């Protein structure tokens, strides 16, 4: 995935992993368009940071488009604005980074509302952008003699290891990320219908990332969920972006940023394109054994937690009756 001299659009890139990715891609010579909610100060600061990272600051260009990815129909206007800014050509690479999480137990009052919100942002925000940019690419087929005609376009989705592995406390979040997995596998096959416009589809599967959003999700995260994922140490945004971009440059389809992510990917490959047929097949055979132990351990943790909660509730009720 060469990026120098190409235009890359990233959603959710005014902070966190999106901003880290934009800075790294700018350092490799790309022109950058960032999309984020309408906060002029934050967008201006992000553009300044990206500009400072540029490989060729005198010739590279950077632009911000304010938009809310949860708004139905947002993507067509963003792609049109990006195309106009890019001299009539749609961006060659689009990376959907915007996302959020409100982890909680499914029995809580706000669980369905939280699930709908995560579907709006995490799934439909990315799905709408992919639909809009794919239509733009297919309408704007470059002439065979153009240099860009030889280079693949890329649509990159940002999922999570929870796109392939679910657990207690994430019932409000995992459906949106599992849905992305289904979408990208279907698109990877569908793009074979358009050999004249080579398009690659990718899904990045990071573990926890130390961002402002991670702090927000910890406010609603159940204690049992924190217990289950205590061995997963959050990565910093720069590391996630750097590792993901290195995998994108290798042409990988499902992209992980840690060994834990690799294990979860190997355990849920299904019909996804392989990064390495030999290694992925071997680990696909081994992972059921690893998952048998992992799931026994995690289910035991949940059962134990439930017994403690019930015992605590019974004890509290007993004290209340006695009073």
Automatic annotation (TrEMBL):
Catalyzes the reduction of 3'-oxosphinganine (3-ketodihydrosphingosine/KDS) to sphinganine (dihydrosphingosine/DHS), the second step of de novo sphingolipid biosynthesis. GO terms for biological process: 3-keto-sphinganine metabolic process; sphingolipid biosynthetic process. Pathway: Sphingolipid metabolism; Lipid metabolism; sphingolipid metabolism. One of its GO terms (molecular function) is 3-dehydrosphinganine reductase activity. It catalyses: sphinganine + NADP(+) = 3-oxosphinganine + NADPH + H(+). Signal peptide: none annotated. Pfam families: adh_short (PF00106). It is found in: Endoplasmic reticulum. The lineage of its organism: Eukaryota, Fungi, Dikarya, Ascomycota, Pezizomycotina. Its main location: endoplasmic reticulum. It comes from Moelleriella libera RCEF 2490. This is 3-dehydrosphinganine reductase. Its EC number is 1.1.1.102. GO terms for cellular component: endoplasmic reticulum membrane. It comes from the Eukaryota.
